[in-house]
Every structure is written in C-alpha cells, then in structure tokens.
Design goal:
The protein has 395 residues and is mainly alpha-helical. The chain contains 19 helices and no strands.
C-alpha cells in the first residue's frame, strides 16, 4: 500500500501494521481517502467491493463474502509488494487475473512518463526493478491461465527493460548490464513479439555504449527479424532506425543511410488506427529524427546531424523534456564541429540544467572537450566554462 501510494501521488505512504490490523478486523468501516486510494490500487477494485461501507450512504450491512475475499487476498497482495508471495493454501489458491496485470501495466505507463520527464535517474531504475519483482512474485506465487502467464512475463520483461534503459540513459552501464540477461529471458518466455523488439532494441543501445558495436548490430538485427517488425510498419521503422544507429560505427555510410531511408518509408505507411501497446507512443517522426541525428553524429556528418536535430526539436512532444535536452546537446555539438562556436555555446546553454545528466551530460562533456581543444581562449569557450562551473555543476 505504501509503494502504491508513492506510485500514484509521488509521496510514500505511512501505513503500519496497526492500519492493516484495523482493516482486517473490521474496526475501520470506511477508510480515509489516502487509504482507499492505496487499497484500490493494490486490489484493482473499488473499496466498496472489499466490504467497506461509506457512512454517507444507507447501504446493506457489510457483505461477509466480500470481507472473506479481502481477508484471503490481503496476505497475497501485501507479499507481492515486497516481491515474495507465500505458498497458496490448497483450499484457497490465489488466482492471478487480468486486473492484476492491468494494474501493473498502469504502473508501467507511469514509469515511462517519469522516464520521459526525468531521464534515467537512479530512482526510476530502482522503481522499475522493484516492480519487476512484484510481477515475478505474482508469476511464481499464484495460479493463472496461459494467457495471463504470458502477460505477466511480458510486463516483468518491460519493467526489467525499463530498469536497464534508465541505467543506460543515466550512463550506469554496469548496472544496465546486470538487467540484460533477465530482460531477454523474460521477453522470450512471454513469446510477445513487441516485447522482444523493445528488449533487443535497448540491448543494442547498451552494447553500443559499452563499445561493442558488433553485438549492438546483432541485437538490432534480432529485433528487425521479429514477426511484428515484418508485419507492422511502425515496428519496421523503429527497428530499421535503431539498426542504422548501431551500424554507424562499423558499416559504410551507404548501409546506414539505406536503413534510415527504409525507416522513413516504413513510417510513411503506418496506420495510426492500429492498436499498439502504450509504450510505443514514443516512436514518431521526432524519434526517428533523433536516432538519425545520433547516427550522423557517430559518422561525423555534422550538417546532416544539425538538420535532423532541428527537425526533431520542431516535432518533439511537449511531454518529453528529457529528449528535448538530449537533442539540444546533439545540436550544439553539430554546430561546434561546423566551426560556429558562438552559436553552439548559445545552443548548449538552453539545455535544461536539471536534465544535464546521463547521456546528455556525456554529449556536453564531448562538446566541452572539443571547444577547449579547438578554441581554448575564445570568448565562447570562456563563456561556456563559466556557465558550466556556475550553473551545470550546481545541478
């Protein structure tokens, strides 16, 4: 309940054993609003369905069947919060249903929103890892249909992948590597093609940041070969674009540009009405431009990198400030490499200081190194050094 409240409100709950004792014993007829909010998130149903009665309404006496349901399910749900579910009793096994998975999927949606806003912070990583353990606790401690088990494996893979991605984005690469095998295994167990595409795509990014371009390309090729990438133009576009980024450090520019063209053509064929998982909403023309900008940066094609960065900034969704900071850092680096130090420093200074961490900070470090190397005594270099010391270092 405490973790559920934190996920919903951003503030950790203060529920205690005594709170739960009063709820279980029937001493609390209608919990306070924060308690109801936490209960309803944990159980995926209204508080009235758990046997509690609002005092402002004239309702029948508490339903003993609903109270028994609450008493039976409470230990299971509480154990799931900490990642351990006790063995179910033979006469009352806990049946994991669609509502349990729906709850986890809603929490995953919130996690992605936090990542879009904050970037790969340690808090986002740890929360994703904890939620993965909750999903696995339900998988291992309850009974479920084959379909629900597949969904549980998929959501556990997504949480693990989100933890890995947060660590990648935060440049905590060894931590990210620790999530990789479990994410790949859970995605395979889910047999869900979109989940497999997501995990292999982020695996490619991890390998690239670790300096293993051959493995990065192999991971992206595995995503490209998935059934959903062959069937759905949106996934085809994403996998082509990611493959181009991974090829940029090893293959010819011709191969990279060919895959970026394939990504663009596939994106033009997308049917927006087709149903897709909510996590795929990040991929659009702005994301394709961002990936193309990264590939152009790796190849040192600075005019193309600048053009793609401008295009991405013009199209980025307002809900994605982390990507705006990242693209702005790419833009500043591209401008600097084309000899426009003054304009480049002005651009770099527009990166939100609170988001100048992880991958964005890594790009700004490259920016600083090149500026100092090429124009150490210039006015833009002095301006940037002062700004970096007084503003960025304080964040």
């Amino acid at each position: 309940m405490n973790e559920a409240l934190a996920a919903l409100t951003g503030k950790y709950g203060t529920f205690s054993e005594r709170t739960l004792h009063n709820l279980l014993a029937g001493a609390t007829h209608w919990p306070r609003s924060r308690t109801r909010l936490a209960l309803e998130e944990v159980f995926g149903c209204p508080a009235s369905d758990l046997g509690f009665t609002p005092p402002i309404h004239q309702q029948p006496p508490e339903d003993p069947v609903q109270r028994r349901r609450f008493l039976r399910a409470a230990p299971i749900a509480a154990a799931a919060t900490v990642g351990v579910i006790p063995p179910a009793k033979a006469d009352a096994p806990y049946r994991v249903g669609a509502s349990d998975v729906d709850r986890l999927e809603r929490l995953h949606d919130q996690l992605i929103e936090d990542d879009d806003q904050l970037g790969g912070t340690d808090a986002v990583e740890q929360r994703a890892a904890a939620l993965a353990q909750q999903a696995l606790a339900l998988q291992n401690g309850g009974t479920a249909s084959a379909r629900i088990r597949s969904r549980l494996y998929a959501i556990a893979a997504h949480f693990t992948d989100s933890a890995m991605w947060a660590a990648i984005d935060g440049r905590r690469l060894q931590a990210a590597n620790g999530y990789l095998n479990q994410a790949v295994t859970l995605a395979a167990l889910s047999a869900d093609s979109p989940t497999i595409v997501r995990v292999w795509g982020h695996a490619g990014s991890l390998y690239r940041h670790l300096g293993r371009p051959t493995d990065a390309t192999a991971a992206s090729e595995a995503a490209r070969a998935s059934a959903i990438a062959r069937r759905d133009p949106l996934y085809a576009s994403l996998t082509y674009a990611r493959l181009a980024v991974d090829q940029a450090s090893t293959d010819s520019p011709t191969a990279v540009l060919r895959n970026l063209d394939n990504a663009q053509r596939s994106l033009s064929r997308v049917d927006e009405r087709a149903g897709r998982p909510s996590w795929m909403r990040f991929y659009d023309q702005a994301e394709l431009d961002l990936l193309a900008c990264g590939a152009s940066t790796t190849m040192g094609r600075w005019d193309e990198a600048e053009a793609r960065a401008h295009s991405a900034l013009a199209r980025l969704q307002p809900s994605m400030p982390r990507n705006q900071a990242l693209v702005t850092a790419y833009l500043a680096l591209a401008q600097l490499h084309q000899g426009d130090a003054g304009h480049a420093v002005a651009t770099a200074r527009t990166v939100a200081p609170a988001l100048a961490h992880g991958r964005t900070a890594h790009l700004l470090n490259d920016f600083t190194a090149h500026l100092v190397e090429t124009a150490p005594t210039s006015s833009p270099a002095r301006e940037w050094t002062t700004y970096r010391k007084e503003v960025l270092s304080a964040c």
